[in-house]
C-alpha cells in the first residue's frame, strides 16, 4: 500500500512539475519578446492578457505618431517619445523595436508612396539622435540623412509628399521644422528651420521658405500637387519669442515655387490644423489655435479649395454622456486627418486635441458632430483618458483600418482594441 501511495505522489509531483514548467514557458512567451538570441524585451502583462493568451506590452510610452504601408497593410510603424521606432509585420498583433536608428522623440513618420520598404521619420534630439532618418527595409534599420533644427514642440513637423516627377518617377518629400527660439528646448542646427523638400527620396534637402515661422500643420497631395502650409506663429526679430499670426494658410501647386495666401474669412483667426477631404478635394477643414468661452476649438470649412472660409457653428465635440473637453488647460486642436474613402466614397474625419481628457475624437459628418472613440479596454494594461496627442495612421490598402496610439480599429472607427503586444 505504501508503495502505491509513493508512486501516486511521485506521479503527481512529476505531472505538476511538467505542467508548471509548461505554464512558466507559456507565461514567458506572453511576457517577453526575443529581439535577438542574446536579448529579450520584458513587458508588463496583465492577468487578462495571460487569460486571453495575448502577449503583454508596456503601453506606458507616449506614442506620438504612426504609419501604415499603402502596399501591405500588415507593415506598420509607431514612433515613441523616448524609445524610438517600433514596427509590426502582422497587422499590429505584435511589435518589435527597430534594430538601429533614432532613440529619441519621433515627431512624424511616413512610408514612401507605393512602398512597404522605404520609409522616413523625423526625430527630435541631439546631433546624434535627432534629424531626418531613412529606412529601406521597412523600418528595421535607419540612417540619418539630414540634421535639422530641434525646437521641442507639440507635434507639428509634418511630412507630406508631392506629385511624382514624370522624368525621374520620384515623389518629392516635404517636411516642416519649427523655428528655434529662446525659452524652450532647442537642439540641432538652428539654421535649418522652415519647410524643406527632397527630390532624391530623402537623401538631400533644400529650404523653400518659412524659416521664421512656427509650422503648425502641413498637407500634401501627390495627385493634385497641392501643398498647404499653416503658419500659426512668427518669430520676433530678436528671436526671443513667437507672436501669433492671423490667418496663416498658404497653398502652392508648383512644389513651393509660388504661394497663395488663403485667409478670406479667417483674418482674425490663428490657424493651427488643416486637412482636405480626399473624396471631394474642394472641401477643406481648418481648426483654430484658440478656443471659445467653453474652451472648445473653432472649426472652419471651405468648399472652394480654401478661397473662402466659413465658421462651423455649434460644433458638438462629444455624444451625450461622454467626456467634455477639459476647461483647466490650454486646449488646442492639434491635428485633423481624414480616412481614405471606402467603396461608397465615404470618409471619416479624425480630430486630435491636445491637453484634454479623451483627446481622440471622430466625426462622421465632416466635422459638425464628434464623439470620443470607443475603446475596448479588456486587454489594456493601463486604462487612461489620455491627455497628450497622437497621430492616427490610415492606409489605402484597407480603408477600414485605423491605428491610433496603442489602439486599432478595423471597422472604420466604430470600435478600437488595444494592439501593443511587444512594446
Walk me through the structure.
There is one protein chain. With 423 residues, this protein is mostly beta strands. It has two helices and 34 strands. The strands form nine sheets. Strands 17, 18, 19, 20 and 21 form a five-stranded antiparallel β-sheet that branches. A hairpin with a 7-residue loop joins strand 31 and strand 32.
What are the low-pLDDT stretches, counting only 5+ consecutive residues below 50?
2-22, 181-190
How far the N terminus sits from the C terminus, by CA atoms, comes to 55 Å
Class by alpha and beta content: mainly beta
Shape estimate? globular
| Helix share bin | under 10%
Mean pLDDT level = 83
Count the E strands: 34
Structure annotation, total helices: 2
Major sheet: 5 strands, antiparallel
- Rg over C-alpha atoms, rounded to the nearest angstrom: 24 Å
Measured by DSSP, the beta-strand proportion falls in 35-45%
